[in-house]
Amino acid sequence: MARNALSSITTFHVLTILLLLLRTIAAVHDYHDALRKSILFFEGQRSGKLPSDQRLHWRRDSGIHDGATAGVDLTGGYYDAGDNIKFGFPMAFTTTMLAWSVIDFGRVMGPELGNALKSVRWGTDYLLKATSKIGSGVVFVQVGDPLSDHNCWERPEDMDTLRTVYKIDGSHPGSDVAGETAAALAAASIVFRSRDPAYSKLLLNRAVTVFEFADRHRGAYSNSLRRAVCPFYCDVNGYQDELLWAAAWLHKASRRRLYREYIIRNEVVLRAGDTINEFGWDNKHAGINVLISKEVLMGRANYFSSFKRNADEFICSTLPGFSHAQVQYSPGGLIFKAGGSNMQHVTSLSFLLLAYSNYLSHANKVVPCGDTTATPALLKSLAKRQVNYILGDNPLGMSYMVGYGARYPRRIHHRGSSIPSVSAHPAHIGCKAGSQYFFSPNPNPNVLVGAVVGGPTNTTDSFPDSRPFYQQSEPTTYINAPLVGLLAFFSAHP
């Protein structure tokens, strides 16, 4: 589809548009500082008993009895955004992307590699707990009742809302969340393979078991748990892509033939067209194609050639100015896709552009797109332009990363950040008592360093620095996770 659209556009027009989008607006960025802060953000999202080396000191222990009502230890993990729910689906995707960031870019993270590894392990330690009953055919996929939680505005340290535990099993399947969990565990097993072999083996073995469960009991978790997960993290895209995504990571981690055969047998899942440039917690299409294409580009897996064709199509569909109807660019040069929390698309798609650029470079390949050519250098420039926009090279001159630069969002939609910390206000702040802080025009008292908010959600590059505008002002772990890899690369290749 993208190539047909490209055929009527001249190389001159393409280059003109690209030069406009890639022109430098601001001075050099401190990518290493941004990398450090992007990882530090995850410490602000931690649930459970905090470790002695916790660096964001305004946070305290929270959710320390999670899982008790189900007779299982579900402490730990991450709050996905500005609320106090632990949603397993986006948490698993976050962990997968943190692991991929380390796999592809860990070697250039410098002193931040240790912190990146801790961020991965904080996620996998929880996912191991959530799958501890997999032998009985049970996976725990969420802690906390979203309706009662979203009816309150309170610190995680003060939570008095329901900490309901939600699970999937053979009678109530959730191949999507289980598949993503298997992918996260498999990807992380690669991260720890040489660093902690015993832990890596545990992760891979659990990934295998969870994937078998997900594939055997097929179905979308939003059908089984609609009240709990919709409309928050309702599976709109279906579960088949998560199964293929998990198989791709298991193949990468284990090199077992059965996963290769599973991928080939199920490649029909990846339809071209509207899904070619989708990648995020609910849709893995572009990510699967890019991940598997590395095998083809390295000359090791011609049987995966259809995935490379899809990956090339994805690349062409994201080129600015003439791209796929579902990928637009704002006047300031930001990738824009319909829906809320646009930065999740910006960081995830940019990660894929950069990863594929590196794979192409090592194979000495380019991507033909109609009358133009997508070179590795061009793809790196496109990804870097998006990162620079986030860090302040935009019409507002505003960093969308909290704590980076002179101007950044001060009123983010985040309970813990917006309410005085326990050290500043030791007394309990109840469910409705926090409303005064939600509606306050004052900046948040606690700086959630490194948090990247949803950002502009229209094509005018405008941004309301206001808590009620949650689609623009709420940070999420799955915005930051791909950004970790991007910032690592550009800190070493500014």
Placed side by side, the strands forming the largest sheet appear as 1-2-3
Question: Beta fraction of the residues?
Answer: under 5%
CATH class: Mainly Alpha
What's the story with the biggest beta sheet? Answer: 3 strands, antiparallel
Return the domain count. 1
How helix-rich are the residues, as a percent range? 40-55%
Q: How would you describe the shape?
A: globular
Our count of helices gives 20
Enzyme class: hydrolase
GO biological process, one term: cellulose catabolic process
Protein name: Endoglucanase
InterPro entries: 6-hairpin_glycosidase_sf (IPR008928), 6hp_glycosidase-like_sf (IPR012341), Glyco_hydro_9 (IPR001701), Glyco_hydro_9_Asp/Glu_AS (IPR033126), Glyco_hydro_9_His_AS (IPR018221)
